[in-house]
Amino acid sequence: MKALHFGAGNIGRGFIGLLLSESGYDVIFSDVNETVVRALQERGSYEVKIADESEQRIPVHNVSAIDGRNPAVVAEEVASADLITTAVGVTTLKHIAPGIAAGIKLRMERGGPKLHIIACENAIGASTQLKEHVMNLLSVREQETAVSLIAFPDSAVDRIVPLQYHEDPLEVTVEPFYEWVIDRQQMFNDVHEISGVHYVDDLIPYIERKLFTVNTGHCSTAYAGYHKGYSTILEAVKDEEVINLVYGALQETGSMLVEAYGFKEEEHEEYIRKIMDRFRNPYLSDEIVRVGRSPIRKLSPEDRLVRPALKAWEQGGVTEHLAKVMALALKFDYAEDLEAVKLQDLIAEKGVRQAFADISGLDLSHELTQSVMDAYEK
Ligand SMILES: NC(=O)c1ccc[n+]([C@@H]2O[C@H](COP(=O)([O-])OP(=O)(O)OC[C@H]3O[C@@H](n4cnc5c(N)ncnc54)[C@H](O)[C@@H]3O)[C@@H](O)[C@H]2O)c1
Ligand SMILES: O=P(O)(O)OC[C@@H](O)[C@@H](O)[C@H](O)[C@H](O)CO
């Protein structure tokens, strides 16, 4: 069995590739990073190191790679894969869609079997987004055949994998915790299950709980920590003011999630505490600028700040801490992050209120916009 995985980066090697390999797949990574592609081709294996007192090293065998910039090679692998996964970043999905569409055409010409394509990105409905990009590249007739042969189940992935600075370009250090949830309703029957994956009938509560707790809490730590001049998440969570803000933001998303999905209050509180403990892992060095990366994406309407804040506001809930975090996100001006630079340019050009309204999709005069502006001024 062959799995084709787009993105041999941190989560690709440290999580998805590992689980696919443990499930019996030969894993072919498609990536645009020449060093990583060559190393995977030459060695055919790599190691995942667990960031805890065990410092366990898990070997991952039967892996290889292709150059993601070569459309013909990508299409050939898509045509013959038994499973396709991605972890390239949600904004990069449109760039891998042409190779996938070309491969699907080949696959259909050859009468290939059914296929699942699962985007493992931090976004609601990432596989569905990829599906739209791919379908737009097929003719109406091809689309009709493709929908019966190719399914794009949405998923939620959770494992903190920081930026890696090892001598070995393939080694990857990961936290011990992981969770991968896939929407079974969007899958064909008789699938080869991936070991360690939790299949559910309704993914929305899972992806929202993950994104609006792990990722809301994480970016709250990053933006508050950045503002205070810290470099790592571990430094930031030792600061009482930062941790109070993070906890406050998670109480706000938590109340919203409990009301929306009926999670038990005590269980959700326990979930929040466990997530915050993961940020305190002393064996993991996670940079604030990684966690805060792409602030425009993080301030977009469906992402970890605006969506839970708007839902909480619609429920009549409190959003004070979330508004502060959004204001801090607007101040994230890290010069090496393209979106942070673009964000600061937008603020300089249009003013902060207009820039925020354009990015978040909220009205200029919305009560939430006003509270973000008040916090920004403070
Ligand atoms: N790192 C984490 O803790 C974590 C956890 C859960 C989910 N995620 C999500 O996983 C995705 C990847 O994150 P990451 O941290 O692994 O990032 P990363 O930058 O380490 O990995 C992305 C990889 O995609 C490759 N890539 C870029 N364009 C490509 C293309 N056109 N074709 C093939 N490969 C291409 C890059 O070269 C890189 O190796 C993101 O959506 C992220 O939100 C990350
Ligand atoms: O990958 P992003 O930029 O969406 O978010 C940064 C981190 O919060 C994220 O990568 C977490 O480490 C991960 O989502 C944990 O499961």
TrEMBL record:
Gene3D superfamilies in the cross-refs: N-(1-d-carboxylethyl)-l-norvaline Dehydrogenase, domain 2, NAD(P)-binding Rossmann-like Domain
One Pfam family this sequence matches: Mannitol_dh_C
Entry keyword set: NAD, Oxidoreductase
Catalyzed reactions: D-mannitol 1-phosphate + NAD(+) = beta-D-fructose 6-phosphate + NADH + H(+)
Domain Mannitol dehydrogenase N-terminal residue range list: 1-193
GO molecular function (one): mannitol-1-phosphate 5-dehydrogenase activity
Binding annotation for NAD(+): 3-14
Residue ranges of coiled coil: none
Mannitol dehydrogenase C-terminal domain span: 202-377
GO cellular component terms, semicolon-separated: cytosol
Keyword hit for NAD: yes
Enzyme Commission code(s) on record: 1.1.1.17
Biological process terms in GO annotation: mannitol catabolic process
Record has Translocase as a keyword: no
Family: Belongs to the mannitol dehydrogenase family.
Protein name from the UniProt record: Mannitol-1-phosphate 5-dehydrogenase
